[in-house]
Amino acid sequence: MQELVLLGDEAIALGALHAGLSAAYGYPGTPSTEIMEYLIASRERRGIEGGEGLVASWCANEKTAYEAALGASFAGKRAIVTMKHVGLNVAADPFVNSALLAIKGGLVLAVADDPGMHSSQDEQDSRFYADFAMVPCLEPRSQQEAYEMAAEAFDLSERLSVPVVLRLVTRLAHARAAVRVGSAARPRNPVGKSADKPGWTLLPAYARKRYDMLCAKQADIAAWSGSSSHNVSTPGPKRRVVITAGLGGNYYEENLADYLAAEAEAGRPAEPPARLHVGAYPAPADAIRKLCEGAGSLLVIEEGQPLLEKKLRGILDPGIAISGKLDGALPMTGELNPDNVRAALGLRPRPTAAASPIALPGRPPQLCQGCPHADSYQAIKEAARGLDSVSVTADIGCYALGALPPFSVPDALVCMGASLSMAGGAADAGIKYPIGVIGDSTFLHSGIAPLIDAVAGRKPITAIILDNSIVAMTGCQQTILPSERLREICIGVGVESEHVVVIEATKIKAAENVAVIRRELEYRGPSVIISRRECLEAFRLRKKKEKAEGGRE
Amino acid sequence: MKYDIVLAGVGGQGVLSLAAILARAAMIDGLQVRQSEVHGMAQRGGAVSAHLRISDGKIAGDLVGSGCADMILAMEVLESLRYLSFLKPEGIVVSAAESVVNIPDYPEAEKVLGAVRSLPRSLIVDAAAIAKEAGSPRAVNMALAGAASLLVPIKIESLERGMDELFGGKGADVAAANRRAFELARERSRK
Known about the structure:
The complex is a heterodimer of chains A (553) and B (191). Chain A has 553 residues and is α/β, with parallel strands linked by helices. In chain A, 40% of the residues lie in helices and 18% in strands. Chain A is built from 21 helices and 22 strands. In chain A, strand 2, helix 2 (33-43) and strand 3 (55-58) form a beta-alpha-beta unit. Chain B has helices at residues 15-28, 109-117, 127-134, 140-148, 156-167, 172-190; strands spanning 2-10, 32-37, 47-55, 69-74, 87-96, 122-125. Chain B has a single domain (2-190), classed as Pyruvate-ferredoxin oxidoreductase, PFOR, domain III (Pyruvate-ferredoxin Oxidoreductase, domain 3), CATH 3.40.920. The two termini of chain B are 27 Å apart. Chain B has a 6-stranded mixed β-sheet, with helices on both faces. In chain B, 57% of the residues are buried. Chain B is an alpha/beta fold and 191 residues long. Chain B is globular, with a radius of gyration of 15 Å. In chain B, helix 1 (15-28) packs across helix 5 (156-167), helix 3 crosses helix 4 (140-148) and helix 4 (140-148) packs across helix 6. At the A-B interface, helix 8, strand 8, helix 11 and helix 14 of A face helix 1, strand 2, strand 5 and helix 2 of B.
């Protein structure tokens, strides 16, 4: 037994390694990225044991990552797939369908939600996906639990032959604490494909049977969660009972001493209220009913959207007053924290230091000084000046910051790949100069299919690929294919070669670049401009690495 | 014993390394530690913060509550004022004296310094100047660690060991400059 300081993400990764992990796939996305980075470091023997023979690779997108993990499970191996919450939308097709499969090697989806949208475009709650797909979900609330639940998830996946979801949130994924870890890793599963053909072939005739089996399996899943040690009932007074889930449990405990003091002050017993903490889903219906028998009211404290709170209204006697996010006792949006949980418990705010004596201007994130995207946006802005029917749809990455001053170039920004498909739709609707701005990695993730649509429909879109050679936003992971391939890909899907132009995103070339963009805007078919210059951070890391490698020789 | 710190700065300054050293040192002392940080978009020149919680007992959550922080430790002076609602009435602000002016509406530097000085308890460290004097402009965060070392419930030997562990791989020159910045700041903040 050894103690290590780990991020929540790293604890999941190490837990998976110690559980006999054979393969790991993912697409970078905050706050999930460090799970794969840890596994890749282990594979490359950078100070983390257990990675010999491990497969750990970034993939083109979350869908291909999930499907690769499915293939490994089919072949008998334990596989993990990692992504952020919105990545699961991309992987939703294989994920939901995989619930019907006869999972062989343990299959675990580690998905990290971002309530509060620290670095995301929404705060959807992945527990709903687990519920929708009818598969078990584990929600750790400490780094230690994250480590332990990884192994449990693999065992459960193999025992019940279903994929298992491990749901993380930012504040656990990106917080460090000491974790007691086991020393010996479980041996890996031998390779051997599933012999259950109908269990892996979702033709309607088989799929109907498989869906019946999944429904029948729900009793086993409920029995597991009903007896899980992660669902903890604590007896106590029932004037007001409490259900906590995930990090909601931590913030509740943080305020408990003050709550008891307030109870004593009000002349009531200073005893913690009866409580259920939920860490394993589906939520344990019997434990909830038992908790609420004879209770006056119920407060539900869960991180994310009100999943439990909504479900309870179908479980409980309508006589009990339920409060939580739906009645405003806790905020519907943003993260839980010690303060809003405190208010929901009816406690006064703690006194704080004086407010700032001066007004503080905001300091939003911005493109780095000298960033190539700045030169690209400047050129696009200049090229579009004076044109009366222009739209600029952008995409997910550092360059999303171009929507803010001083650039303010994009008009719309939705999800991975939407820049190019939306430009096509805008063209169909009658916009004369629809520009789609997309990063190199995002293009490889989900920009190729929209480009095929534009070619097929001969849509006059101008796709501008901001090629900085790296996945910059999430900390400079290698792009899945090198920059040199981008031009070939565009020509390969049918964009005419004279309308696939590579420019250099620098100040010196500004006038020339503006002229190229103007020319391609006037072209009445699909064109692609690859605006190329290495990310400064990637350049810095590359030089550092070269220096370190040179030093060892 | 429980000691909560909110660390503040601008993306790219090394706030997370500072948090990591304090956390490591507290662990060497046998204390419980939780350290929460935000990666991703916030790194790009924007305001960044990290929460560091140290205790000799169980720590329930990763976040510091309003009115709970014993210290705000800032690598940039304007940022030292952004998280005051986390600070206990008797808590202290420890801040680098220097500004990072990367926004158009940044107030006058003197006004910002004056605001920090007007707080009930504050300690301003000429961190950038000290780092330069110590031989490494990147050692600003270690100068702040030196100033904070006078106040946090962590043994000085553990802080020194934490620094050696985290920066040991960066060569003897870097390690020595870090140690000098730490000690110079500690010395000057004592006055």
